[in-house]
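Issue 218. Parser rejects a valid record. Input:
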Amino acid sequence: MNIAALVQYARAVDYSRQLANIDAIFARVLNQ
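Output the parser choked on:
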């Protein structure tokens, strides 16, 4: 694997983590 692929993978992981955090926040708001 080259560095560009690693960077792209790291960005995708970070992006999916942010989406998961947003989902968790929405779930928390809807539950209240």
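Fixed in the parser; the record now loads. The two ends are 45 Å apart (CA to CA).
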